Inverse folding.
């Protein structure tokens, strides 16, 4: 039996395809590195045709950077407050009646997202987060979304993951950032450094400490991670005890959970794959 | 008439050589890109011999990264409080009686400097800054030094310039950071962003603003510069009206002066070349 539709989470560097049945169940899934930057100009129809060859000749619903100016067809941003129904009402049809792209969401801050909105609203639709909540989606660009009455009412993005990668791969700290990053003492030292509110100074202090033999070089990566993630969470000014629903793979989710606890908040882990599936299936049904 | 000695400000990527007479006057000077990273292993004696061939067969006094583990001979750091006499008493002789290297300075923070100490203490020795002062040396790694009774009593380094270069050259903001950076309205917008204390969020906001057409792309580089330099100055927690002596070339000095004024401080420009010459000549005389 063929799937009801194919859902594609199509990002800048990666892509994940799900074959979904009429009840919202996953029949098959595949992940590869064919993000939009690896697709040549005019190459999107062939990419989608290959997915149909593999999973079934059914409608396709795409989300993510595939709807950006660098993607297939630009899907204009929906303004906050944004619901799943708003997204479903603003689908852009790349192939009429056959392939649609979910729009991103914009905030007047200014801020923008593409792809995260499906996961965020899907978490609420699936009951994984309440309809009034603060959701955090850590990553290259970490998203913090305020959800009220089931709508994204506002959100902010921090460049946390991208800065970490730049420092690890291309900075004066690169030689020292070779150790593991996990929720251990060095990461918590980094969270304490973030509390000083002097990140530019603390970053150089990591080099100085390593040069002077004051800090173990193996700890530098974890401490820088703690400094950046701790700074990210501090920028939210969480109310005491505030609950934060975190959508991420387990390793990164554990780091953000530790930072949220350190800042006096209460983290709750949410299954981000389940959230995406619930969101994309809901949009599919609303658009039908 | 030959010079009394050659002074070499020998950094990671650049080198400046001064031929100095017995009165501390500059007879000749030359600047090139033969920083320590461009000198092959074992190549330092030949480099210094070439300088002597050109300027005169006299003693050579070097400062900067040439005294680091990646340089010619490692010159251990002198601890704070550090005076010119302390530096002169701790010269490392790379060629006995012929070529010496000035040590760097360390702070328990932890923090380290190499080369900047000559300029900082030279500014005081030359009367360009008082013997109790806060000095700022902006750059790839900006140095903030507390001077008391003519000694460096403590200092902090911020990774400001390096982060700006990473963001301009290798980040998601690179496409937008093509405009000029000067002390204009966009730079001051960046200083105001820094006051929010949310730099990770403000950085992504620059991308979002450009994507949404809210901000002129030509302004992004200046605004990011204002955000980073403003954050650097904020990390100092300047007392109201605090005087900051700034040692830098005029363009960068103007940006830091604007940020210091924005934070309620009083900037004073110091000629950084004159400061270096005064410092290295004083060390030369003290070591004689």
């Amino acid at each position: 039996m063929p799937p009801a539709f194919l859902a594609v989470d199509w990002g800048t560097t990666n892509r994940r395809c799900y074959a979904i049945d009429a009840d919202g169940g996953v029949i098959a899934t595949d992940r590869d590195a064919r993000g939009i930057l690896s697709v040549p100009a005019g190459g999107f129809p062939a990419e989608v045709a290959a997915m149909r060859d593999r999973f079934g000749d059914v409608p396709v619903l795409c989300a993510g950077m595939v709807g950006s100016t660098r993607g297939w067809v630009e899907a204009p941003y929906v303004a906050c407050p944004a619901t799943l129904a708003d997204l479903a009402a603003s689908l852009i049809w790349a192939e009429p009646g056959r392939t649609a792209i979910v729009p991103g969401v914009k905030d007047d801050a200014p801020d923008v997202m593409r792809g995260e909105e499906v996961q965020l609203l899907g978490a609420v639709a699936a009951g994984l987060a309440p309809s009034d909540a603060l959701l955090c989606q850590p990553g290259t660009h970490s998203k913090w979304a305020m959800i009220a009455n089931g709508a994204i009412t506002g959100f902010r993005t921090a460049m946390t993951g991208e800065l970490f990668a730049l420092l690890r791969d291309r900075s004066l700290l690169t030689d020292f950032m070779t150790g593991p990053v996990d929720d251990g003492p060095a990461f918590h030292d980094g969270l304490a450094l973030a509390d000083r509110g002097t990140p530019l100074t603390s970053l150089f202090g990591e080099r100085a400490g390593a040069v002077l033999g004051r800090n173990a070089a193996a700890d530098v990566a974890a401490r820088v991670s703690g400094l950046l993630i701790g700074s990210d969470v501090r920028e939210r000014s969480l109310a005491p005890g505030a609950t934060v629903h975190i959508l991420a793979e387990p390793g990164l989710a554990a780091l953000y959970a530790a930072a949220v606890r350190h800042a006096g908040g209460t983290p709750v882990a949410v299954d981000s794959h389940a959230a995406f599936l619930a969101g994309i299936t809901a949009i599919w049904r609303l658009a039908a």
